[in-house]
Amino acid sequence: MKRFLLGAATAALVAGPAFAAQTHVNLGVALEPPNLDPTAGAAAAIDEIVYQNVLQGLTRIDKNGEVQPSLATSWEISDDGLVYTFHLVEGAKYHDGSDFTADDVKFSYERAMGPDSQNAQKGLFEPIESIEVVDPATLKITLKRPTGNFVYKMGWGDAVILDEASAADTATNPVGTGPFKFGDWAKGASVTLEKNPDYWGEPVALDSVTFKFISDPTAALAALMAGDVDAFPNWPSPETLPQIEADPRFSVVRGSTEGETILSTNNAKPPFDQLKVRQAIAHTLDRQAIIDGALFGSGTPIYTHYPPTGPAFIDLSGLYPHDLDKARELLAEAGFPDGFEATLKLPPPVYARRGGEIVAAQLAEVGIKLEIIPVEWAQWLDQVYKGGDYDLTIVAHTEPDDLQIYTRDNYYFNYEGTEVRALMEQLAAEADEAKRIEIQQAVQTKIAEDAVNGFIHQLGKTVVAKKGLKGLWDNQPTQANDLSEVHWEE
After folding, report:
1. Residues 439, 427 contacting (CB under 8 angstroms)
2. Which residues are within 8 A (CB) of 234 and not within 5 positions of it... i.e. 6 or more apart?
3. Residues 198 and 183: beta-carbon distance below 8 Å
4. Are 352 and 394 in contact (CB under 8 A)?
5. Which pLDDT score is estimated for 325?
6. CB 118 within 8 A of CB 40
7. Does residue 55 contact residue 104 with C-beta atoms inside 8 Å?
8. SS3 of 451, please?
9. Rounded to whole angstroms, how far apart are CA atoms 139 and 109?
10. What is the pTM of this model?
11. Which residue, 41, 162, 36, 48, is CA-closest to 95?
């Protein structure tokens, strides 16, 4: 029997007269979430507000990308890797006063697994064979097969635990067990969270936080300079960073994310169902030019769907180097010597809108003429992500450890990927880390060879904050703005 018992929560933050003077923070974020239920929506903007702040899972992913305890204080894994016994926090309550128990975990997971599930990451729960409530503080989960990263997956925002009594209203009124409770949502403007005075864990320093939705880069700079916003966890205007860095009122920290920014491609729609067409696109993309032009150098070129900072990274830059002549040759072989016309649907983020203009100009050099169609996030989620109604689009996939999306049925890429599915099945059952890395590298290589998407760059993260505001994450190993350590220091 393997036993895992992780440390307690971080120590209380420094308090005192100077600290007590400021207990509210205004955070600027580029996107307003479509709803506030991470178990029923794919938008990263949902997790960026409620994950770990309002809603919690059995485990959590910390600022270093490591698994930590959350509503489960410890767990044991049977020798055959099939049975997980979780020991839960005792005395924790939801924000409405209801008790948190093992029954809530069973309800939440079975809801996510069920036929009516709206969970965007339903596949996380597929390995589960059965869930048994041993007692209110003990839960036993039996898997169909060994799943080496099961505890990590249960730390995603999609696996947060809800109370059955309030789950149906989570989209507009999330009720969780976290250190903050939902306060107010001024549609089109902001979401405010308030400190949970009855939090079961270490209390947070802030009394409240307001997430202000500011999508326009010019407006973001104006809000920062005017003092209307204290910080942006992810600064949306890279061209203004030199100005901000020269201002002694602010600090700037450059970090990384799990966001693979890709030219998502509908593999089922002609002519993108032809490998040679997708290979031609791969040869056409000048990744560094896109990074420099759209993001002023803030990003790292990628050639497959995996972060360059990850332990299984493999350099595939030589597979489809920037080569316009080769691209034209492949298009001619595919039956398009003069190119073709297609559409490019672009969601609101700067990396997509600005990057899309550059991508369109690059593809035009080999005869691929793109009609650019700007769409709002709700449209993108409905038309592209859910409906598969698109040719090309640009989006950053910010989920951690997300190679498994290339195995999903009816996913918006429409990639069959028989070999990748077999490899991912091997990965799911493999516990040896060296072998896991080998399999992950094989998957990266295959999806790159198949040019499933146009892989562009790893999205950077730049934190801009007033001097004295501490505790925001430098990097973003998961879709989160965890506020548990955020405080003012004077």
Report:
1. yes
2. 29, 30, 257, 461, 462, 463, 476
3. no
4. yes
5. 98
6. yes
7. no
8. coil
9. 12
10. 0.85
11. 162
Q: Is 177 left (phi over 0), alpha (psi -120 to 50) or beta?
A: alpha
Amino acid identity of residue 131, one-letter, is I
Distance, CA of 14 to chain centre: 30
For 91-107, the pLDDT digits (tens) are 999 999 999 999 999 99
Give strand ranges (E) for 245-382.
Answer: 250-265, 299-301, 340-346, 368-374
Question: How many CB atoms sit inside 10 A of residue 406's CB?
Answer: 23
User: Over 60: is that where the pLDDT of 10 sits?
Assistant: no
b/e burial code for range 113-151 (CB count within 10 A of at least 16 → b): beeeeebbbebbbebbeebebeeebebbbebeebbbbbb
Beta strands in 70-216 (DSSP E): 72-77, 83-88, 128-135, 138-143, 180-186, 190-195, 208-213
C-alpha atoms less than 13 angstroms from C-alpha of 192 in its C-beta half-sphere: 9
Strands, E assignment, 214-328: 231-232, 250-265, 299-301
Classify residue 361 as exposed, middle or buried by CB count within 10 Å of its CB (0-12, 13-18, 19+): middle
For 276-296, what is the mean pLDDT?
96
Q: Is the pLDDT of residue 396 over 90?
A: yes
Q: Is 329 exposed, middle or buried (0-12, 13-18, 19+ CB in 10 A)?
A: middle
Q: Give residue 171's identity as a one-letter amino acid code.
A: A
What pLDDT is attached to residue 447?
98
Cβ atoms of 300 and 458 closer than 8 Å: yes
CA–CA gap between residue 268 and residue 256 (Å, rounded)? 32
Radius of gyration of the chain (CA): 23
Cα–Cα distance measured from residue 298 to residue 121, given in angstroms and rounded to the nearest whole number: 29
DSSP for residue 385: I
Phi, psi of 60 (to 5 degrees): -140, 160
CA separation for the pair 362, 43 (Å, rounded)? 28
- Looking at the DSSP bridge assignments, the partners of residue 128 are 143
Both tokens assigned to 334 = 């595919």
Largest CA distance in the chain: 73
CA distance between the termini of the chain: 49
Give the residue from 395, 287, 311, 298 showing the smallest Cα distance to 66. Answer: 311
Going by C-alpha positions, the residue among 149, 120, 131, 138 that lies closest to residue 61 is 149
Tokens of 386: 């859910």
